[in-house]
Amino acid sequence: MPDFARSTDPAVQAQLDRLTLLSPGADILGLERITRLLERVGNPHLRLPPVLHVAGTNGKGSTCAFLRAALEVAGLRVHVYSSPHLVRFNERIRLAGTLIDDATLAPLLAEVLDAGGDIGASFFEVTTAAAFLAFARTPADACVIEVGLGGRLDATNVMAAPIATAVAQLGIDHQAFLGDTLPQIAREKAGIAKPGVPMVTMRYDAEIAAVVSSAGAPVFAQGTAWDYAVTGDRLTYRDARGTVETPLPALSGPHQPGNLALAIAMLRHQTVLSIPDTALAAAATGARWPARMQRLGTGPLTALLPDDTAVWLDGGHNAAAGTAIADTVASLAADRPCHLVLGMLANKDPEGLLAGLAPRLASTIAVPIPGHAHHAPEELADRVRALGVASVSTADDVPTALQALAERIGTTPPATILILGSLYLAGVVLAANDELPD
Questions:
Q1: How far, in Å, CA of 375 to CA of 371, rounded?
Q2: Which residues are registered as beta bridge partners of 53?
Q3: Less Cβ crowding at N or C end of the chain, within 10 Å?
Q4: Model pLDDT for residues 102-116, shown as the tens digit of each residue
Q5: % of the chain exceeding 90 in pLDDT
Q6: Residue 383, SS3?
Q7: Which of these, 392, 403, 404, 397, lies nearest to 429 by C-alpha position?
Q8: CA distance linking residue 192 with residue 56, whole number of Å
Q9: Beta strand 164-167 with 199-201: parallel, antiparallel or unpaired?
Q10: Bridge partners of 26?
Q11: Can you tell me the distance from the alpha carbon of 139 to that of 149, in angstroms, rounded to the nearest whole number?
Q12: Model confidence over 350-361: pLDDT tens digits?
């Protein structure tokens, strides 16, 4: 479905309006439309700088952020394609280190839409074609490309020869497209494998590992080809080539060392780009990935709360993300009451997301997600109550929820507020707090 794209630039907005109108009414995975579309604009995917391609249910965006940070510290110019955007459509396409500007984006989208108006390509397929066209025309040393949904039939999977692929953490999500079981989902994610191209993975159980290994690429899995350990404030990565020691990631959460190690493994198992160990270490503290356990800074939203209130934002929306978030809250806010502001898309599972977090919650306020089909706040509140959270209410929007919490929590003891449930909601929050991703 279209991703509620808005722009303050009239020329860009005109193309985003066309994009929304031309997209099919339902998401249909497959490579036929994107292949036809790319042919009409000169097959730019065949002229990209060396590509690092990352799939996974959770963690693939953070892994891409670590990859970008390491490559840039090594002095390389890096294109990045990621999704969804949080506030501005431009966030999806980073050209040689800088978000694509409106003056470049508007004619680029127009060119792709003009070329493929009769194909019926989806929002994501048109965006992917535009990104690849921009990447082929702008000099750079590497591309970091995040899978949109799944892998095997994702529009990004038209590339014939990346220099390495990776599969991050696996979990149950997007069942309508990928299947209801982890083996089915693993098969789809591992579908980005290419013959002879190293595929780096996290540690999976034997059944999942067998599925991934059957994908047709040399697999370098955590626990066999590489591993890592955390001791104090240091991460030690090791593989057949030796060890690399880094600081712990600046990105919050006990799951982030694993994502950093996956990025390091990916770079150390490819042979095209030369990345010094110093760049791998610097990536730990240099990576930025908004709305993934991001502490909000000073802004209009946080000004509504007592000065010492910690406000964290995360776009997590599935069970695997919920486990990581619960662990993160336990480590970051063990001595503070935790209040949740929750909004979720209609096709997401509140019980799965909150299973580990609910026992820690002092209260929850359910809110809508503007512009998207979402769980009605009243219905979402009922489902949270069923998880045993005592104080549950609703609000019309996040600012109203924060004002209610300001009255409820006072100043003693200091509180933690977590805003959770959707990257679309996270984008609304960042815009409202004047924290635009750059």
A1: 12
A2: 145, 165
A3: C
A4: 999 999 999 999 998
A5: 76
A6: helix
A7: 397
A8: 10
A9: parallel
A10: none
A11: 27
A12: 999 999 999 999
Query: Of 237-241, 281-285, 408-412, where does mean pLDDT reach its minimum?
Result: 408-412
Structure tokens at 7: 């722009």
| Residue type (1 letter), 9 | D
Q: Which tokens is 214 given?
A: 């059957």
Pairing of strands 294-295, 310-314: antiparallel
Q: How far apart are CA 256 and CA 241, in angstroms?
A: 23
Tokens of residue 323, six digits: 């486990």
Residues 244, 281 contacting (CB under 8 angstroms)? yes
How far apart CA 201 and CA 231 sit, in angstroms, is 22
Question: In sequence order, which residues have a C-beta less than 8 Å from that of residue 48 and are 6 or more positions away?
Answer: 79, 132, 135, 136, 143, 159
Residues ≥6 apart with Cβ < 8 Å to 219: 199, 200, 201, 212, 213, 225
* Helical spans, DSSP H, in 52-181: 60-73, 102-116, 123-137, 175-178
User: Angle 102-116/123-137 helices, nearest 10 degrees?
Assistant: 120
What value does the CA radius of gyration of the chain take, rounded to a whole number of Å? 21
Q: What are phi and psi of 75, to 5 degrees?
A: 90, 15
Amino acid of residue 41: V
Return the residue matching tokens 């005109």: 14
**Tokens, residue 46:** 């065949």
Nearest to 81 by CA among 58, 54, 59: 54
pTM of the full structure:
0.91
For residues 224-235, give the mean pLDDT. 97
- Measured from the Cβ of residue 220, the count of other Cβ atoms closer than 10 Å reads 20
- Which residues 6+ apart lie within 8 Å of 237 measured at CB? 226, 227, 228, 243, 244, 245, 246, 261, 264, 265, 280
**Of residues 425, 405, 205, the one with CA closest to residue 315:** 425
CA distance 357 to 352: 10
**Structure confidence at residue 368 (pLDDT):** 97
CA distance 41 to 414: 56
Give the pLDDT confidence of 42-95 residue by residue, as tens digits.
Answer: 999 999 999 999 999 889 999 999 999 999 999 999 999 999 899 999 999 999
Residue 51: both structure tokens together: 């590509």
Is a pLDDT exceeding 80 seen at residue 174? no
Helical ranges in 123-181 per DSSP H: 123-137, 175-178
Place of tokens 């635009």: 436
